[in-house]
Amino acid sequence: MLDKFKRWLALPDRQDMPIPDGLWACIETRLPFLAWLPDEARFRLRVLSKDFLAEKEFYGAQGFCLDDKIILTIAMQACLPILNHRGLATYHDWVGIVVYPGDFVVPQRIMDETGVVHEYEEVLLGEARADGPVLLAWFDNDPPAGVNIVIHEFAHKLDMVSNGGNANGCPALPSSMSRKAWVETFSAAYERLCRLDDAGIETILDPYATASPAEFFAVASETFFEAPMSLRADFPAVYAQLAAFYGLDTATGEEKLRGTRFTV
After folding, report:
1. What residues does 96 pair with on adjacent strands?
2. Parallel/antiparallel/unpaired status of strands 96-100 and 57-60
3. pLDDT per residue as tens digits for the range 222-247
4. Which one, of 157, 148, 144, 45, lies nearest residue 97 by Cα?
5. For residues 32 and 81, what is the distance between their CA atoms, to the nearest angstrom?
């Protein structure tokens, strides 16, 4: 249905064609952390996701056949970071989302400080490319535990907007926020996480967050949406900055609904 839906949106008399309520409900059940959002925010997420589908193009790599549920699941998660931010204008300069049936190999080419070029292959779960598409791995069964690939990569896209296509962990902030406070908060938290990881002490954040400040921001963003109470407990200052940035108090939403079943 969604392929037809996307094509028909170009026609004036198809702009209001609905996505079935049953499909929305199915995806929302698959993504239980959407329950942390207020009802009005979940409604706006549906609207934004529909607009996202009208603008973006999905491709199945390696012969992977994308169905409605996969496409809508990705769209709803991709729109979470921009729900109260800048909307689809944030994603204006690219259109493609490439979905692989599991992890995938990407050739890499880097130059070291001596000018020597190194070429190698890297196994990835996702990649946000400054020059265009977002690459995502999809797992029907046994997805990687504690990882939200979609939110992670779209957080990178947000990070790239104001940094010339380079993610550095400091995205463009709303005018109400202080860049100085953001840098101080995230730098201190990143250094603390690295110390804890070196000491073998686990936190709510995946150790991959120690790879760079950009990865710290992306991993923290995943956790902000999926396990916000735990993030608030372990990294309260980071949580406060992300709540201001994303315009959502997900921890309070989780706190209110903890122990209850999410129904639509």
Report:
1. 57
2. parallel
3. 999 999 999 999 999 999 999 999 99
4. 157
5. 16
